Amino acid sequence: ERGHGPYQPHEPGYGLYQPGHSPYDDQIPDPKSRTLAIQNAKAYLLKSSTTSGLNLYDHLANMLTKILDEQPTNAVDIIENISKDVKWAHFQKKMDTLRDEHEILPTFEAAEKRKALFLKANGEGDEELEEEIGETPLPNVMETAFYFEQAGIGLSKDESYHIFLALKKLISVQPIQTCRFWGKILGLEMNYIIAEVQYHEGEEEEETEEEAVTEEGGKWVGEVEDEEEEKEKEDEPPKSTYKPPPVIPKEENGTGANKYVYFVCNEPGKPWVKLPPVTPAQIVCARKIKKFFTGRLDAPVVSFPPFPGNEANYLRAQIARISAGTQISPIGFYQFAEEEDEEEEVEGGRDTYEENPDFQPLSVAEMVDSLSAWVHNVQSILKQGRCVWLNPLQKTEEEEENEEEEKAEEPDELPQELQQEIGPPLLTPLSEDEGIQNIPAWTAQPSTNLIPQYAVAVLQSNRWPGAYAFASGKKFDNIYFGWGHKYSPENHTPALPPPVQAEYPSGPEITETRDPTVEEELAFKAAREEALATAEEEEDEEGAEEDEEEDD
């Protein structure tokens, strides 16, 4: 009869799990055969692997030795790990000149870079901390991140805290009066974390080194030219009468587009780099091109029209454009000082304001329903590339004297008058911003509709995607996370090159003459020979007459 089990009666494992049955009943009791079977089994276990060179017998013996020596708890659960440890021990030599080269994980490398952010400065005590907490330009980045998080905007908490510590490091090194986390601009290789700061009065160093170098270089070149000027006067080509348009000077530090100073770094923990001031030419050119950032400040900007600078200058120009168009505040939070003169308003508009101590915040519903509840708190940039228009034809006294001498030589040339550019004044409501075709310039919405009593008013710029602002009571802030590009409903089309210069007008004075034919050449030679012959005859006659006169 067939048994009720997984094995058939003729199979070796039949009856192993039945009570009263011994697994050795089916073996031959002959000791010689049993010894031979044991030797065969041991020989099989001692057979070395063709891959690792180890054998199972020694491996099991080492495993049992390790288990009995260490006696771990629940050895059956970790026997696989014990097997790996025993195998790994065969490949480690105690006395060897070679050492393992451990792979540096990206997380470990990032932690090493940010390690300096968590170290306190030498000699920093509790008293100094209390003073810093009382008066410090360090912004509360975590609080701002919390409010933006209500609308699903911002970075992770870890990155926000690392930026918090990086700003603290920046303030401890630079003489900064105010500091703000401006935002993060994305790049193809690395990103830019941007801090907007203001120095204490008189602390900012003016960047005049480059100007001094160019002046010195100009003097040196001038001396050499004076020595060789006399030699080259004879072979000088005609000089061009073209006069390039006057260069628009940049606005002074602390005013206009250079009101704030910006520091950038690729990651929290890396050194902060100060961006150079922006010039009107860079802003004007940045409006005509569209380039992705690489994350390297010294990278060239290859574009048409050619950009006057590298990526650091292009980044600074884009920051100025984004700030001028997206930095906003609730209406009534800022007000103009009453002591300002009316003349300043007529010339270039007011450029300063102060906080309103009597400010009463609007409700979230009122700030979301109407864009008139928000105003721009940064000056707009004119087409000229400056916030305050400057007449490039207005000359100083020395330049006027030089021009009078030039006009005496060329009285026909008269300068054309330029029309003054006027932009929207400071604290202009957002309701006056122009839309983009059928898209409004701003989108306002509460952070939540489920709990409106605790909602936060959030504004999103449609002209500069990535620019956001929030307001909750008397607290508000602006931030930017994006690629640094302005929205365009159409694809970006680079500017066309200028038209080809016209050719010189063709006239008889520059027209090439026609080559003569053979008959004309022969006729010309014959006429020339006749003229020479008649000239010789005349000379001979004159000589004969002179001889006769001498004889007489």
Automatic annotation (TrEMBL):
<feature type="region of interest" description="Disordered">
    <location>
        <begin position="1"/>
        <end position="27"/>
    </location>
</feature>
<dbReference type="GO" id="GO:0035082">
    <property type="term" value="P:axoneme assembly"/>
</dbReference>
<keyword id="KW-0966">Cell projection</keyword>
<keyword id="KW-0963">Cytoplasm</keyword>
<dbReference type="Pfam" id="PF04712">
    <property type="entry name" value="Radial_spoke"/>
</dbReference>
<keyword id="KW-0969">Cilium</keyword>
<dbReference type="GO" id="GO:0001534">
    <property type="term" value="C:radial spoke"/>
</dbReference>
<feature type="region of interest" description="Disordered">
    <location>
        <begin position="395"/>
        <end position="417"/>
    </location>
</feature>
<feature type="region of interest" description="Disordered">
    <location>
        <begin position="201"/>
        <end position="252"/>
    </location>
</feature>
<dbReference type="GO" id="GO:0060294">
    <property type="term" value="P:cilium movement involved in cell motility"/>
</dbReference>
<keyword id="KW-0206">Cytoskeleton</keyword>
<feature type="compositionally biased region" description="Acidic residues">
    <location>
        <begin position="397"/>
        <end position="415"/>
    </location>
</feature>
<dbReference type="InterPro" id="IPR006802">
    <property type="entry name" value="Radial_spoke"/>
</dbReference>
<feature type="compositionally biased region" description="Acidic residues">
    <location>
        <begin position="535"/>
        <end position="552"/>
    </location>
</feature>
<protein>
    <submittedName>
        <fullName>RSH4A protein</fullName>
    </submittedName>
</protein>
<feature type="compositionally biased region" description="Acidic residues">
    <location>
        <begin position="202"/>
        <end position="214"/>
    </location>
</feature>
<feature type="compositionally biased region" description="Acidic residues">
    <location>
        <begin position="223"/>
        <end position="235"/>
    </location>
</feature>
<feature type="region of interest" description="Disordered">
    <location>
        <begin position="528"/>
        <end position="552"/>
    </location>
</feature>
